[in-house]
Specification:
The protein has a four-stranded antiparallel sheet with strand order 2-3-1-4. The chain has four helices and four strands, in the order βααββααβ. It is of the alpha+beta class.
């Protein structure tokens, strides 16, 4: 598996209006990834300890490099639509891209996954 990793630093606007930010972020995820079928999963995490505390970590998972390439071509094609690109770039009101990286799974099965205990 291939994972596109983003570290996003929230803007002053996001920090001043957390409810507005989270509403926008949830709607954006649905809108942005709609129809991008090579995306197998997304995940979001808030960094609470270490450097860049309060940054948002975002992972987008693909089966392989070919799937990621298809995704890049699809996003590039969508960006030619001025309305779509205007909506995409409104993200700069809410966050700044601090880092982007590609991560690959190790060559052997690793990772622990447990369901949380019932509440």
């Amino acid at each position: 598996m291939l994972h596109l990793h983003y570290r996003l630093e929230l803007t002053e606007a996001a920090e001043a209006d957390p409810a507005g930010f989270w509403t926008w972020a949830a709607e954006r995820e649905k809108w942005f990834y709609e129809g991008l079928d090579t995306v197998l999963a997304t995940s979001w995490h808030l960094r609470t300890v270490g450097t860049h505390v309060h940054a948002l970590e975002h992972l987008v998972t693909f089966a392989d490099e070919a799937a990621w390439g298809t995704y890049r071509r699809q996003v590039s094609a969508r960006s030619k639509d001025t309305a779509w690109e205007k909506r995409r770039t409104e993200q700069t009101h809410w966050w700044r891209l601090a880092e982007a990286a590609l991560l690959n799974d190790p060559p052997v099965a690793m990772g622990l996954h447990r369901a949380p205990p019932p509440r």
